Queue: 2 jobs
Job 1
Amino acid sequence: MYTMGIDVGSSSSKAVILRDGSEVVAEAVVQAGTGSSGPGRVLEEIAARSGLKVQDMAFILATGYGRSNLPMADKQMSEITCHAKGVFFEEPTARTIIDIGGQDVKAIALTDQGTIRQFYMNDKCAAGTGRFLEVMSRVLEVGLDEMAGYHFRSQHPASVSSTCTVFAESEVISLLSQGMAKEDIIAGVHFSVAAKACALAQRVGVRESVVLTGGVGQNSGVADAIQKELGQQILVARDPQLTGALGAALLAYEEQIRKEKSA
Amino acid sequence: MSVKQLSQMSAKELLAYYQAKLDEEARQAKANGKLVCWSASVAPPELCVAMDIAMVYPETHAAGIGARKGALDMLEVADRLGYNVDCCSYGRVNIGYMELLKEEAMTGKTPEVLANSPAARVPLPDLVITCNNICNTLLKWYENLAAELDIPCIIIDVPFNHTMPVSEESKAYIADQFRNAISQLEVICGRPFDYEKFHAVRQQTQRSIAQWNRIATMSQYKPSPLNGFDLFNYMALVVCARSRDYAEITFRKFADELEEKYKKGESAFKGAEKNRVAWEGIAVWPYLGHTFKTLKNQGSIMTGSAYPNIWDLTYDAEDETLHSMAEAYTRTYINTCLDNKVKVLRGIMDRGKCDGVVYHLNRSCKLMSFLNVETAELIQQANGLPYVSFDGDQTDPRNFAPAQYDTRVEALGEMMDQAAQTAGE
């Protein structure tokens, strides 16, 4: 039996196909989110990779901000539940999840059974999100994928204290004009993101293992800053952008089994 | 409207009828040279009603403007006057509205934005009365109204209750505040206070409150015949007409309808009631439908909210010392310590048999929101139920994002489902 999870976020679209709720058959990521060509393209891409069509899926579950705009989905669930499911499947020791996406930062506390004990999300504010990093990347003229490299070359990370994205942008511009090294500014930006995420994690209560997910998890500089901020090792999900879609595919499998049982 | 026609109306029709009637009465009063008072929502109306003053309630009026999607126009007027977006949006909507009415009065021309507004037309006040038992913003807001319009401002000062129960000293102080307001009213009206009518008005208020409380008890039943969001709508009359029989008549009808529903085993929902939530905080008026539907679509019914419960102003109408009335007007849960706030909300959750809580982090209402984090944690420690918090605002639509709300509320629904599944295994 094949099931598919689709996670359409604010910045990217992700899909995972599972066989019998345990084996990943194919995965795909397109860097374009809800309201764009992303959802359509990710479906085309995963079909091409797996050789499977939408009709071959026993159940499709959608998550992410664009979850309600996918007519082929049998069910929608929040990304909080999907992330928890996906992370616990890949890392059964996970008890705390820090997820940093395009416009959300969330901390999720898991029970020993992998269910959600509590979660907190950012307020109506872009601070500490992927969008915050995108703005800084543009100001600094350093690509998002290059930021980690700069981070690890930093000797004296700058202090970027503003929580508001617009204020922080001004702060970074001011640091640039003072001639501060980009390495130090970037490390400072990463510590600023980490501080925001860790405050949420501390509110839910940090228990090991701590797992980092979401698109920003691909930036090892942010992972490093989070480790330093928490003062403990963290794990980064195998593919941090895909855990939501993986969780959705797992939940799709459970839904289908439940459906078959009740039929 | 004849009595017979009124008796044939549904509660919903009565609500609309009396709301319109109250506005019309205020307009007529103004036209006939009688006094009109703008009042804070939990200031005692008993005093002004006893003196036959027409009442208008800016908070309810602003909520109505918000619900009819007209808030932004008023907020922009307040923005231009320099009121920061961090100030209460009820206050900003009302000050924007007042400014437009003032412009109309001074120029004889109705500003276009007022002419096109879906706001119910109410007249400018001749006096204002405010009370700090629900927040301190109401002091500065009403002082501003009084200064802008050069009219009297009556303030009922109510001390915050850092401990409960309410102390005798506090009750005596507040009763003196009432007596002081009476003296002010005698000067403003130019005649002696009508103590006989005041007694009758207090009795009427208690009859209205008894029916209001009858409605609230309906959410204890499973399935609940009462959708808690309906209380947000009916609140208009407990605010604006609790000292009149309009509220009593409407609430009795609504409670009767709900009892009938309960007897027939009917739910407030057409679909099945999957789980029950408490709602902490003021409604998001510009998105009332959206906030309700997101919960409804996932089978969550709201069966507990401390907000409408603020108007459980039960007191002894025969107590001429006014200490009992003073106690009712100071014990509103947001005028009390954290311990009491937690106790009140827990009681509401227990009675409503709630499975989770939605906390509104309301950018307008600091007093109601700043204790949410502590309240949520203490309640969860006590009853272990999941909760979620979302960012919003009572009347500023710019401070609410529907998709953000949906994600949080749906996650709460999934947590409640998970808990039910685990309990069933």
Job 2
Amino acid sequence: MFDNLPLLSLVIWLPIIGGIVVLFVSRGEAGLQRLLALAFSVATFLISIPLYTGFDVSTPQMQFTKTVAWIPSFNVNYSLGVDGFSMPLILLTTFFTVIVIISAWEVIKKHVAQYMAAFLIMEGLMNGVFASLDSVLFYVFWEAMLIPMFLIIGVWGGQRRVYAAIKFFLYTFLGSVLLLVSILYLYFETGSFAILAFHAQSLGMTAQTLIFFAFLIAFAVKVPMWPVHTWLPDAHVEAPTGGSVILAAIMLKLGAYGFIRFLLPIVPDAAAEFDWLVITLSLIAVVYIALVALVQEDMKKLIAYSSIAHMGFVTLGLFVVFSIFRQTGDTAGAALGVEGAMVQMISHGFISGALFLCVGVMYDRMHSRRISDYGGVINTMPMFAGFMVLFALANTGLPGTSGFVGEFMVILSAFQVNFWIAFLAASTLIFGAAYTLWMVKRVIFGDIANDNVAQLSDVNSREFWMLAVLAIAVIVLGVWPAPLVDVMHSSVDHFLNHIVTSKL
Amino acid sequence: MDKVYLILALSPLVGAIIAGLFGKKIGRSGAHWVTNIGVAISFVLSLVVFNHIVLNDAPTYNATVYQWLLSDGINFEVGFLVDELTATMLIVVTFVSLMVHIYTIGYMRDDPGYQRFFSYISLFTFSMLMLVMANNFMQLFFGWEAVGLVSYLLIGFWYKKPTAIYANLKAFLVNRVGDFGFLLGIAAILMYFGSLDYAQVFAGAEGHANTTIEIFPGVEWSLMTVVCILLFIGAMGKSAQVPLHVWLPDSMEGPTPISALIHAATMVTAGIFMVSRMSPLFEWSETALSVVLVIGAITALFMAFLGLIQNDIKRVVAYSTLSQLGYMTVALGVSAYSAAMFHLMTHAFFKALLFLAAGSVIMAMHHEQDMRKMGGLRKHMPITYWTALMGSLALMGIPPFSGFFSKDTIIEAVGASTIAGSGFAYFAVVVGVFITALYSMRLLFLTFHGKPRMDEHTLSHVKESPKVVTIPLILLAIPSVFAGWLALKGMPFGDYFGDSIVIFDQHNGLAIAKEMHQGDPWHFLTHSIMTLPFWLVIAGIATAWVLYVAKPEWPGRIKDRLSIVHRILDNAYGIDRLYYVVFVKGSQLLGKGFSSVGDAKLIDGIMVNGMANSIGRFAGVARRMQTGFLYHYAFAMIIGLLVLVGWFVLK
């Protein structure tokens, strides 16, 4: 019944139109603006569900495709489609936008329409990034997406919001310019802006190397990878709760998605040549960043650093394939890494999103993110404490929660390359538990630390359901990840065969 | 039988969920009923399974429940393997758990977190069942971490107590160090065996007997040794073996019922069970077995010493548990897996009994745990006293109590073993017997005998605990007395475990030991009382009597005379302090360094802000060139033209 609907166009444009409607139609009435925003976000989420139910898992081909000429003179097309990599990420986006709108309900009192509109528009743009099959279209969405995020941090942010917003903008803009240059080069080589045409194009080693580093910088900034990560803690600390949630849950995935959609399939030989570099940076993220997270005094900073460490597993999982192929002449064992990376992306979306929401719930009451301002929250907010402890444990990769699945798969895969890579990656078991649970100990447990904590009230029903839905997602995905991973198999197999085939 | 296994595993989970999520609605009695019934169902079904698998020799059950994940052609499943080994663990786990569930009704009567507590212990039972019933390494790891999680939640159950929330974090992190090794072991298994399924991995063990793995460039190690040691690191965490033992004494901050259930009878024996389960792998590596043996021997002896100087009644039992876990590990090291399992079983009964008896005393004493303030409780608490006495006699190894048989079996197996380290291990376990008797009798004398040392008010309130507390004590005392005699012939010396445990002939010390008594309990007894360990027990009891009954002023004098020794023991060899300085402070220091130097100075300072500043400076310079004076521009144009013309001419 959905065959005739342009689903991908809808998940892109419906929220953007919704954002405009919220902005201009309902002047001044905050209640109506919230309801409208919620309606649009829920509608978009519902429309995105058939992308999963109607998805053909047997083929690596792009599905739900739609192509319309856009700028014919340059062969630029409005071309959309999804495979096993992008489809789950679109669902994650549409899901989290609903959560974010609910999370802002009573909290955002300043410029409600603009706030809601920014998130709706950003949702459409992020879906556009995931669904684009044309590199110009991709680039337009990629760049446009920065604007609402820049505004969210800059307008609704904390004390140093301008510094954080500009740092965020400049960092990611640096990457974008390099991305554009590479896309233009590839256009002159292929005569097309189609991403799949780039995949098929053979390239010399010099060109591949240059493009590799351009892509690496462009996408590493977004992931973010060490050492281009320092914008993230600042951005998170200054962003309002919703901004942090979207930043952690979705935007960080865009960088990793860039590796999957652009870097690896377009310049596989250069990627094989420099895989050690990415693996090294990933391991630095896992170990170094974990230690940095340990000593943070601000909860949001701690979770931000934790995000960087967890994203290290994504980049690690994506780049183990080349060593495995060199050692065995086969890709067996590598699919575990790539699928693990994908699961880690989705799971980290849920967990870090949930943790930022938890911090938001506390911040709304206490107006502080400092760990030392808290202590014994469980005494006054027992229900909330239950959620927070659950998400914290998921963050430590506890089996039975989604946090375990991706890390487990990536560690198993990394062991095939080298004992020490797995050794360093597995250290997250200790460090991840140390920084997360030490924070929980200081914030949640203990006797009531001060009068402010004594006056806290437990979650209201809006907050309860928001966290409950995420808790269910985290547990279901941990107990039964098969339905998520099954949609990826064909795409991952195709992807692996493609990137171990030389393009020289 | 499919449904039986599923219901057996899931009914505690159902109880845990109902008590946990709807605790307020169903109330306190609702919570204890739903969880007690859940565990009771599991216990009854465990008896059915035991009858089916062990008594009627049904073939091993091995089946998938559902597919967790399929990736890269590797099937990750949740499934059950039930053989003699599992069936034994099921009985031990569900029986002790049921006793603790009943006991908790009395012990936690006045606690505001009543429902939460029941939810946790049922969740623990579910996790432990998943662990012992697993048929693959993924699920084993799930159970492994899940019991660690519940342990974390329960040690920190009284979350207002600073010591409790310190102890639970410490327990979780130390366990994670073990799990870290364990996970790497699992990864190695997947890489070389291509599967995580027990049956397939065990079947492939022989084929990899000579496989080597290069961990350091140029150094080839036996794969089996590496895998087994990595797995054993996991066991060291969970079963609290030196040097990962530091969390267990602190775990006593949790309520006493969980000390009995988790930190004595079940979770801490998970490592022993796991190594027994992996006997088809460990048998291929004598190096790994030697490591297991030496670690176990160190734990058995040196943790026993620490039991001598504790004043907290629970801590004495805790160090005793550490030492006894060392005995079990020693048994594993000499390939006497069945002896380890035998001691695991008897120990589960008598140690759970001792903890619950200690809990009964603590209740009577209004949550006073210091033995120096007890004494003379025998008259006021007869049931507690007599059951505690039976537990202690079993622990010390007095015939014919259960611990006598299981401990002497281990000592005999070590004596017959020729594996590297067995000489030291024999010394350790034999000396350990003396120490065990000494600290056990010290506990009994200080608590139950002599004159009461508590204040008048407390003394006037001391009374025997209610029935929900004493009945579990009595029910645990029964197997603590008889289980050894009954199981001796079959379990360590017979064919009880069938194919579930593999022992190579050249490692089989138990077979040599068996020649002397054929595993017959009476012959075993008459043979054993002629040997050194038995007389060391008697000597230990006699020494305790002298020190704590006849000459109670002596211990103080000995303490003064040997103050250095006392200080070393009191600091538990300084290991906690060392870990705190090196690991806790060290990683914080490293993190601060990375944060302030790496992130703030180098990346943000030099790269990011530095770049921004240098662009600013460059712009400042470049700006000066735009003077706005026409003749400056004209001059620049002329210079430029001259250079261009010059270049063309000279070319």
